[in-house]
C-alpha cells in the first residue's frame, strides 16, 4: 500500500500521542520511523511501531520522559533516560551537548535506560546539517557471534558518523553485524537460503537456512576487524553509560523487559579546528567521479544512497507491506 | 638474526640520538619500533628505521620538536607537530590531554605536521594501562580504493581503541584496508599470489599478482562498511587537524616530502561515568570461554594475540631478517 509520508507521520504521531506523549515527543518519534522508511531502511521504520505502542501501554516506555541529565564533567553528560522514547532522550541530549561546545569543542552524552533510538543516521544527519560532527553508537540484544565463535554474545552495535562537508553531509550508518536480523527474516519469509558465512544455527553450525539462523547467531562484518569494532562499541557504551553488555540486554525486541542497552552521542564542533582546513566536498566529488569497477555502478559516498531513496520516496510515497498497513489501520481504529 | 629487545632498543635509540634527538625522544621512538616487533607487527617495526633516519638527515623530521599545542577550546587541542617524531608529538599530546580530563571528562588532540606515529596500539595500550579510554586515528598516503572503485584514493586509515577492563586492557588496532601493503610486499618477495579481492592493478583490474598490486590499490576491509569507516576516518582527521586528504598525502613512505597526514587522539576518563558501571573483564572472559567454530582456535579478544606474542618474544628475542640486521649494523658502523 503506497502512502504519503506526511500521512504516515500524522498517523504514527497520533497513535503515540494517544498513549500520553506530548505532541512534540509523538511527532519526533513518528518522524524517526518515517525517515527510516524514506531512506529505505524499513527494518527501522513503521514495523517497529506496534511493539513501541505495546511498550507504552505496559509502562516500559514513558512517553513524557526526556531523561535526567547530570554533567559529571564539563564535557561529559550522564543521562538516565527514565524509560523515555529513544529519539526524545537523544535529541534532548544533543541540545544539552550543543550548549557546551562553544566552551569545550567536543562533548559526550552517555545514555542508559532509554528506549530504542532507531536509525542512528537520523542523529548524525541532524547534527551535520547543523554544522557539527556527530559520532553515535548503540548496543542491542545479543545477536552476533565473535569472530571464530558460534554463540550470540554481542549486539549488532551500530555506529553512525555525520560530518559537514560544505554540501550534503557525509552520513555513515552501519551495524557491525554482516547483515541485519531483519534481512534474515526477509529471506525466511521468501523461502530463500542465506549466503554462506552469514550465520550459525542454534547448535553453532554454519547454516544457509534463514529459519535456523534465527535461533543461532549472525556473523560480524569484515571478519576479525568487524568483530573487534563491534566489541569495542559494546565496551565503550557499557563503560561510559553503565548499560548492560549484550548477553544481559533486553527490551528493544520485546514488550516484557526494560531497555538495558546503552547509547553514546559525541558531538564535535569543527569550528574548533585550527585555521587551514579545506572543504571536504571536493574530495568526495573526486571519489564519486573515480573509475568504478563496473561502469554501471558508480562509486558512492556513504549517505548518497539514502539521500537518493529519500528524494524518490518523497515523490512516489512509501510502499508499506499490506500486513503492516492493515495492522496500523487496526491500531488507528482501536 | 635473533636479538634481545633491549639491545635493539639501545641500537635504535643510539642511531636516532646521533641525529640530534634528546635521549628521551630517541628512546621513545626506539621503544615504539621495538614494541611493534615484539607484538608481531614488523611492518611497523625496525624496517621503518632507515627511512626515519634519512628523514632526520634531510631535515624532514626534527628530532627535538614536540609540537606546538594550542587549546582552541577547553577540550580541543590543536597541534602543529613541527616535523617532530610521531611518538614524541603523540605522547606530548597525551600528557596535555590528561591534564584537562579531571575538568572535562574527555578531550581531543588534532595533530598535523608530525612524522609517522607507527603502531597505534602503542598509544591505546599506554592510555588504557593508565586507566583511560583512548581512540586513536591516523591517515596515510593513498593506497586503498573505494568500495566498487579502482583507484587508490584513501589512506589505510587505521584506528585503535584502548579500554581498561580491570585486568589486561582491551586494545583494538586495525587498518581499514583488507591487508597491509607490507603483506603484499611479503607475497611479492616470496613469489606467492595474493587472494582474489585484495587488490587491483594500476589499470584498475582485479589481480592476484602482488607485484601488479603494488602499482594499483588495495581493497577496503569488509566491503562497503569498511570503506565507509575508512572514509569517515579520512574526513574526521582532515576536518579536525587540517591535514591533507589521501591523494595529496606524502611523507610516511618517502624521504622527500613533509608528512602531510594527520592524527587524532581522543582520551576519555571512564571515572567520569555515573556510578553503576560493571567491570568488563568478566564479559571478555565469557567471550574467550565461548564455544569456538573450530576447537583448535579459541575465541580471542583484540589485544590477546599481541600480548601473547610479546610475552614470547621477551623470552626468545626478536628474529630480524638478515638484510635488515645487516642494514642496521651498517648504519651503526657508519
What does this structure look like?
- Chain A has helices at residues 5-17, 23-38, 49-57, 86-104, 121-129, 181-190, 210-214, 223-241, 281-289, 304-316, 322-333, and strands at residues 2-3, 68-73, 76-84, 106-114, 133-138, 159-163, 170-174, 199-200, 206-207, 217-218, 262-268, 318-319.
- Chain A has 334 residues and is α+β, with helices and mostly antiparallel strands.
- Chain A folds into 2 domains: 2-60 and 317-333, Malate/L-lactate/L-sulpholactate dehydrogenase, four-helix barrel (Hypothetical Oxidoreductase Yiak, Chain: A, domain 1, Orthogonal Bundle), CATH 1.10.1530.10; 68-272, Malate/L-lactate/L-sulpholactate dehydrogenase, NADPH binding domain (Ribosomal Protein S8, Chain: A, domain 1, 2-Layer Sandwich).
- In chain A, the strands form 3 sheets. A 7-stranded mixed beta sheet of chain A has the order 2-3-4-11-5-6-7, sandwiched between helices. Chain A has a 3-stranded antiparallel beta sheet with strand order 9-8-10.
- In chain A, a hairpin with a 2-residue loop joins strand 2 and strand 3 (76-84).
- In chain A, helix 1 runs antiparallel to helix 2.
- Chain A is globular.
- Chains A and B meet through strand 2, strand 3, helix 4, strand 4 and strand 7 of A and strand 2, strand 3, helix 4, strand 4 and strand 7 of B.
Amino acid at each position: 500500500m503506497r502512502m504519503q509520508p506526511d500521512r504516515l507521520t500524522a498517523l504514527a504521531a497520533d497513535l503515540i500521542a494517544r498513549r500520553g506523549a506530548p505532541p512534540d515527543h509523538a511527532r519526533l518519534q513518528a518522524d524517526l520511523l518515517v525517515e527510516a522508511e524514506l531512506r529505505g531502511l524499513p527494518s527501522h521504520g513503521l514495523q517497529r511501531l506496534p511493539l513501541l505502542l505495546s511498550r507504552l501501554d505496559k509502562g516500559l516506555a514513558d512517553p513524557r520522559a526526556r531523561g535526567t541529565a547530570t554533567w559529571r564533567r564539563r564535557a561529559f553528560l550522564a543521562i538516565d533516560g527514565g524509560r523515555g522514547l529513544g529519539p526524545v532522550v537523544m535529541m534532548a541530549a544533543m541540545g544539552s551537548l550543543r550548549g557546551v561546545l562553544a566552551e569545550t569543542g567536543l562533548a559526550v552524552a552517555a545514555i542508559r535506560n532509554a528506549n530504542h533510538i532507531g536509525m542512528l543516521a537520523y542523529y548524525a544527519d541532524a547534527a551535520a546539517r547543523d554544522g557539527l560532527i556527530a559520532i553515535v553508537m548503540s548496543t542491542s540484544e545479543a545477536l552476533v557471534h565473535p569472530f571464530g565463535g558460534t554463540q550470540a554474545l554481542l549486539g549488532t552495535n551500530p555506529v553512525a558518523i555525520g560530518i559537514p562537508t560544505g554540501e550534503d553531509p557525509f552520513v555513515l550508518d552501519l551495524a557491525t553485524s554482516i547483515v541485519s536480523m531483519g534481512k534474515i527474516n526477509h529471506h525466511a519469509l521468501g523461502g530463500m537460503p542465506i549466503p554462506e558465512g552469514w550465520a550459525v544455527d542454534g547448535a553453532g553450525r554454519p547454516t544457509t537456512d534463514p529459519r535456523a539462523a534465527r535461533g543461532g547467531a549472525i556473523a560480524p562484518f569484515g571478519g576479525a576487524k568487524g568483530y573487534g569494532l563491534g566489541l569495542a562499541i559494546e565496551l565503550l557504551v557499557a563503560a561510559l553509560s553503565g548499560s548492560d553488555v549484550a548477553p544481559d540486554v533486553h527490551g528493544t525486541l520485546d514488550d516484557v523487559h526494560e531497555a538495558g542497552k546503552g547509547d553514546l552521542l559525541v558531538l564535535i564542533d569543527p569550528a574548533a579546528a585550527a585555521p587551514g582546513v579545506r572543504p571536504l566536498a571536493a574530495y568526495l566529488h573526486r571519489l564519486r567521479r573515480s573509475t568504478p569497477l563496473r561502469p554501471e555502478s558508480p562509486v558512492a559516498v556513504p549517505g548518497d544512497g539514502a539521500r537518493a531513496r529519500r528524494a524518490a520516496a518523497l515523490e512516489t510515497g512509501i510502499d508499506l507491506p499490506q500486513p503492516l498497513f492493515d495492522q496500523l489501520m487496526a491500531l488507528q481504529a482501536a
